[in-house]
Amino acid sequence: MGFKKLLASLGAGGGNVETVLTEVNVVPGGVVQGEVRIEGGSVDQEIQRLSMGLQARVEVESGDQEVKQDIEFAKVQLGGAFTLQAGAVHVLPFGLEIPWETPVTSIAGHQLHGMNIGVTTELAIARAVDSTDLDPVNVHPLPAQQAILDAFVQLGFRFKNADMERGHIRGTRQKLPFYQEIEFLPPQQYRGLNQVELSFVADEREMDVVLEMDKKGGLFTEGSDSYRSFVVGLNDFRNTDWAAYLNQWLADVGGRRNWL
Question: Which three-class secondary structure state does DSSP give residue 248?
Answer without folding.
Answer: helix
